[in-house]
Amino acid sequence: MSQPGGKAPANSWENPAAEPFIRIRNLSKTFDGFPAVDGVSLDIYQGELFAILGGSGCGKSTLLRLLAGFETPTAGEVVIDGVDMAGRPPFERPTNMMFQSYAVFPHYTVADNVAYGLRKEGLGKAEIKDRVAELLELVQLQDFARRKPRQLSGGQQQRVALARALAKRPKVLLLDEPLAALDRNLRERTQFELMNIQDKLGITFIVVTHDQEEAMTLATRIAVMDAGRLVQIGTPTEIYEYPNSRFVADFFGAINLFEGRVEAGDPSRIVCAETGVLIHAEPIAGQPLPETLFVAVRPEKIRLSREVPAGEGMTVMHGTVEDLAYYGNHSVYRVRTDQGKLVQVSSPNAHRSAELALEWDEPIHLSWPRDCSVVLTE
Amino acid sequence: MKRQGRSPTFLFSCLCFGFAFLYIPILVMIAYSFNDSRLVSVWTGFSLRWYGALWENEQIIDAALLSLRIAFVSATLATALGTLAALAITRMGRFRGRTLFSGMLAAPLVMPEVITGLSLLMLFVSLEGLIGWPLGRGADTITIAHITFSMAYAAVVVQARLTTMDRALEEAAMDLGCRPMGVTFDIILPLIAPAMLSGWLLAFTLSLDDLVIASFVSGPESSTLPMVIYSKVRLGITPDVNALAAVIVAIVGIGVAIAGWLMARMARTGAGRSA
Questions:
Q1: I need a surface site. Which of A368, B15, B119, B177 has the fewest CB within 10 A?
Q2: Which residue among A100, A117, A148 sits closest to B176, beta carbon to beta carbon?
Q3: Tens digits of per-residue pLDDT, A290-309?
Q4: Residue A105 and residue B172: Cβ atoms within 8 Å?
Q5: A81 by DSSP, 3-state: which?
Q6: Which of A65, A71, A95, A99 should we substitute to test contact with B (largest number of B Cβ atoms within 10 Å)?
Q7: More confident residue, B121 or A263
Q8: Does domain B42-268 have CATH number 1.10.3720.10?
């Protein structure tokens, strides 16, 4: 399955001439002096499936509510498709929202829920009927049109909410934690359904989520938020492989962090402060490096071997296996280096019996090539 | 499944005792309403003559009709005002004096009736002196007084429903192009309807039941049912009061049954939980 956003004409965010569809400039919102959203600037392009990711209380939901018009910004502006949204109430914006609680109207039938926005728009009866039928088919709820929400499962209610939000053909669909309330199997299916629907309709989606896995699989681009500010914006790959701070590196999956100093004169050689081991890294061009910095290495980039690994630019450590966990498709090892640092390694179980059947307390070599070391200054 | 602890027989007798305590006085009263004797406490035989006497007694019939009329009007207005107050408190954001307002709204719940009655009487008397209204006291002043205190009950019931309601429902309606006024009629009112009905029933019952406040603000021409019964009992009880009480119990019983059925139906059709 290809990423739907991959079809967006030559990744518009990389094209400096492309006109952003949603332009957010210095947007701030303070509640009683506390900044929930703090100077956010962001460009989102037409047809993107954009994810805003962060822990609870980071301001991601407030940002979404500012876009929908439920909150008035303290400062800054939001422009959607060339129109300034300042002073526009939610009922006059080209956005529709899918709420975290779904907010399906309990006293309306499924069909009436979906038709609600169209009725408010003043469309004719026949047209509403056609549109509702079309939407219910899109979310596969044709047979449930006359049911009340109470008689539906959580997943079905969520699809009603989606159909209702899509009914008015909004320019932007805002989704607040769309998958949070679903169980694991349903989540995965819904995720692909969402991507298919987005692909089919070409509507710009903005998804707010706290789940990095969800953001990675769904989104064309991700903005990571912390304490009201955007920390990093990039494609899932960029954010996973090239995090720009310890916060982002830590937020996305497991990571090993080594604090270190640059060895005199050579920015590609960093000495780990805790272990004294020499770490090889790609030199960072252009910027002067601070005294102490961090090297981040993903667990799956580290290789385990019994014999001493050789190669130019390999970082090598030695330790003993302290813990191991078998997950079927891969195994996770926690190795205590001789200097006492705990390193997490994950290796795929590509063969039925692992060629490297490690046991507890077994001495082992750790190694990774220099291009897997991510040097972080913050 | 074997239950731990007390035996079912013990629990069942507790239940019976509780119900007996609650209902035996009422049952005795209903039984004696069918008594043939003029004396309340001596059983001489079955008869419906006191129901006949009740039907002939214009004073009681008029008082009952007056009470029902007052209760109906005051409950309706109290529910309307109480709903508006509850909407203001829960949906207007944090306006100036909100805490004071919500505290003052609930105050009549704990205010002694004597004080409410007396203060309303003084208000009516001084208003009459100042602007010539209300001219004397009667059904209108009782209705106003009943709205004043039962509005607090209606407001509390509706407020409870509004605070538990998902705000996202209203936001979703607005997001789909509905203006704030439309949200009130499309979303809020249908969902708080059961709570409004509960509030109305509560206000209706309180008004029908009230003796103290009505005594303060009533005029010579307007005696509500509780006032008539109270004065009759003071002159010595007659069995037609028993008959009257039995009729009231029957009416209340039917009313509660209908309300319960209505609320169950609304809950079934998904109009929201009753508060």
A1: B15
A2: A117
A3: 778 889 999 999 998 888 88
A4: yes
A5: coil
A6: A99
A7: B121
A8: yes
Asked whether the beta carbons of A153 and A161 are under 8 A apart, the reply is no
Calpha distance B248→A355 (Å, rounded): 88
Q: Which of these CATH numbers, 3.30.365.10, 3.10.100.10, 2.40.37.10, 3.40.50.300, describes A4-94+170-246?
A: 3.40.50.300
Per-residue confidence (pLDDT) for residue A368, from 0 to 100: 92
pTM: 0.82
**Amino acid found at A271:** V
Distance CA A96, CA A178 (A): 13
Considering the four listed CATH numbers 1.10.520.20, 2.40.50.140, 3.40.50.2300, 2.60.40.1120, the one that applies to the domain covering A254-376 is 2.40.50.140
Q: What is the ipTM of this complex?
A: 0.83
A116 in reach of chain B (CB within 8 A): yes
Of the residues A91, A109, A152, the best mutation for testing chain B's interface (the one with the most B CB atoms within 10 Å of its CB) is: A91
B40 to chain A, any CB pair closer than 8 A? The answer is no
Three-state DSSP class for A305? strand
B172 reaches A (C-beta below 8 A): yes
**Pairing relationship of beta strands A75-80 and A83-84 according to DSSP bridges:** antiparallel
With tokens 């100042």, the residue in question is B130
A164 at the B interface (CB within 8 A)? yes
Give A90's contacts in chain B (Cβ within 8 Å).
171, 174-175
